[in-house]
Amino acid sequence: MATVQPELIAVGSNRTAHALDCSGAEAAYAAGTLVALFRPHEARVHAVLRGHTARVNSVRFAQQGRLLVSGAADGTARVWARDGDAWRAGAVLGGHGAPVVATATHEIEGGVATHDIDSAVVTCTAATDGCVRVFAHAGAGDAQLQQTLALGAHTALDVALAPLPGGGLLLAAACTDARVRLFVRRGGAFAAAAELVGHTDWVTAVAAHQVTEATHRAGDAATAHWRAGDVVLATASQDRNVRLWRVWRGAGGDQRTVGVSDGVVAGADAVLAGHDAWVHSVAWAGARVVSASRDGAAMVWGAAGDVWATDAQLGAAGALQGAVFGGGGVLAYGAGALYAWAQRDGAWTAVAAPTGHAGAVRDVSWDARGRHVLSVSADQTARLYARFADGWHEAARPQVHGYDMQCAAFVAPHAYVSGAEEKVVRVFRATRQFAAAARARVGGDASDSDEDELADGASLPALGLSNKAVGAGDACAEDPDDTYAARRVHTDVAALAPAPAPGAVPLEDQLQRHTLWPEADKLYGHPHEIYAVAAGAGLVASTCRAASARHAAVRLHSARTGQPAGVLPAHALTATCVRFSADGAWLLSGSRDRSYALFARREGGDAPYVLARRQQAHARIVWDVAWAPGARFFATASRDKTVKLWAPDADAPPVTLAFPDAVTAVDFVPERVGARYVLAAALECGRVFVLAAPDAGAGVPTQWTPREIAPEHAHSAFVHRVRWCPVGSAAAWLLASASADHTLRITAISLSSLSPSA
User: Fold this and answer.
1) Percent helix, percent strand, percent coil in the chain, to nearest 5
2) Is the pTM above the cut of 0.85?
3) Residue 743: closest CA among 379, 473, 258, 488
4) CA gyration radius for the chain?
5) Which residues on neighbouring strands pair with residue 123, listed in sequence order?
6) Rounded to whole angstroms, what are the CA distances from 248 to 169, 285, 346, 350?
7) Residue 387 belongs to what H/E stretch?
8) Which of 14, 33, 641, 685 has the highest count of CB atoms within 10 angstroms of its CB?
């Protein structure tokens, strides 16, 4: 294996209920088919758990953080066990015929002997097939199905387990018929016990709290009737309310209570009204409740005298889907984003949380100085990452688009081009706010940048796709003769707002509101959706989806003026990739027609490049191409499970490197390291390899030494792009990789581990 050190794992949360949980200093959230782990005080993902084959819907810690249970759309729940600082996969809880949407786990003191398993843990899984399945297992070991509870025509959206007052186990199911169903187990199987009626719409969440002397807040009339051993259920509903229900040992005697078991009754305790939209989640911490709603608020509730009131109302930029206590405050998520608030000296303060794409990451690009990484995704955003004092974080969200993003490339330190599922390539330039923050991070000065020519900020017009410059100076004023400016029609919906403090990690709200880059130009000419872009030699090269040679040409535009610079026909189908050589002498493209096309620089003529060679290179689609340092040779990567190395000015047969799966992305370290060439190759299954070969003089190297990056540091799905940082060191180089598993990774790789003796 290659010696690696993860620098960044960026991934957003899934847009499902119950997708976030926290236990002590560890938090987890559902991210695509993965479970992402982070420490709230670090605001960075440090590991992901792989195993599910479809979207993860819920995550829940158990046994004081020693176990983690995840439920997914593949119809299974998985148990993970902490093993030191790492996590290992355990039991798979299957049997559902539909997605698992919620799980609940409870530890049985002393364990119970069930079906030859000395079980200490009971786990319930709820799925959209209308069933709740009950499993018994010992930690993360083998699990035994104990029971299946059929709920009929309705579905349980959440479940909770708690000790039944007086002995036994209580299961509460939040259902789509506006009821909370209670089941009781006393030594045998669960049996239906009661229904709690009060909500008027779907019950979306349920959480259980067992009252103890330590958590009972004496002196508050609202909870004065609680006794140690009671169970209090908090439920959330689409009727916009949170309700509290008390389960206790005693006699009923009035219409407000229902019998649960012998000597145990349940009844309504309080209604917490304050949200303006559907409430998606509830969670307990001591005698406090936190609820999250589609209205964008996370409300912290506590007993105040004889009523329940909000201790805090924490707002986010968009709808929230869940919130939990953790990290010394509250963690929440919504629309793919995570939020965090900490309570310090009695006041609530927003703090940084992990960020990342909530869809497949399709392209990644480094700026020429290696200070910034730009990624684009099917979640319709472009995100820019930078190194801060404590590591890599998202520094800006320059583009929030109305189409799924496909590709991007830096054209200057403060400018990039991007393509999406539309017919134009868009050009963006940074703001002064961003340039000032970048200088603060690296300790540079204004003389190193074009800061005076940048706009102060940007805003996104209502119903528009083009970010508008805000507060621009004379250098950014629109020329009345500029046809692009004349085409734009804007409606201002946002004013210039303060940016994050220089050097500080931006918060999610700041990223959404204050870090857009203004759109500087559009590059036209393609008849179909943009597929690939590249920048080099003062030009922008772009391709689009094509089903015929007529539309499969590579189009060139000036990176400075945006004017068309030429059309390069060569392929019969979509050109999937395009790359300039570092010296600009060559332009290389690969295509679905299984060929590559090599264009040579020329002076004069209709286009700055002319076709030098076109060759059927592979037996399947060519996914990517890359240039070796000095343009001595180039690589083509294909679905036929090979990478082929070619000399640009010779007709010699290629050097073929075979891999165990389709190769989807390749890139060379931009300079020779210790007289060796280094190549990264990523596969359709998510595996990543780094290969090294000694300089072969004038020819293409043939002796390549492969090393695989350990699976926990690679991807779990199609890798769309790998790119080496343009600046490295003898100790390590940074490799950025973008994958369909929703993650962007930056990994430091020690190239000394690639020597034949390593």
Assistant:
1) 5, 55, 40
2) yes
3) 379
4) 29
5) 105, 135
6) 13, 20, 33, 38
7) strand 381-388
8) 14
Among residues 457, 407, 411, 408, the alpha carbon closest in space to that of 430 is found at 457
Helices (H) and strands (E) in the chain, counts: 3, 59
pLDDT at 110: 54
Q: 430: which 2 tokens?
A: 């940074």
Residues of the chain with pLDDT under 50: 111-118, 447, 472-498, 757-758
- What number of other Cβ atoms are within 10 A of residue 306's Cβ? 10
- Compute the Cα dihedral for 511, 513, 517, 521 and give only its sign: positive
Instruction: Please state, in angstroms and rounded to a whole number, the distance separating the CA atoms of residues 241 and 247.
Output: 20
For residues 442 and 387, what is the distance between their CA atoms, to the nearest angstrom?
Answer: 9
Q: Which amino acid is at 326?
A: G
pLDDT of residue 758: 44
Query: How far apart (Å, rounded) are the C-alpha atoms in residues 258 and 537?
Result: 77
Q: What is the pLDDT of residue 116?
A: 37
10 Å Cβ neighbour count for 345? 5
Question: What distances in angstroms separate CA 565 from CA 426, 572, 587, one per listed residue?
Answer: 16, 21, 14
**Calpha distance 734→721 (Å, rounded):** 14
pLDDT of residue 255: 67
Q: Which residues pair with 131 in a beta bridge?
A: 150
Please tell me the predicted confidence (pLDDT) of residue 756.
52
How many whole angstroms separate alpha carbon 390 and alpha carbon 8?
A: 11
Residue 218's pLDDT is 57
DSSP for 681-705? Answer: EEETTS-EEEEEEE--TTS-----E
Per-residue pLDDT reduced to its tens digit, 699-752 = 899 999 999 999 999 999 999 999 999 998 877 999 999 999 999 999 999 987
Residue 374, both tokens: 């730009």
Q: Quick check: 556 and 543 in contact, CB under 8 A?
A: no
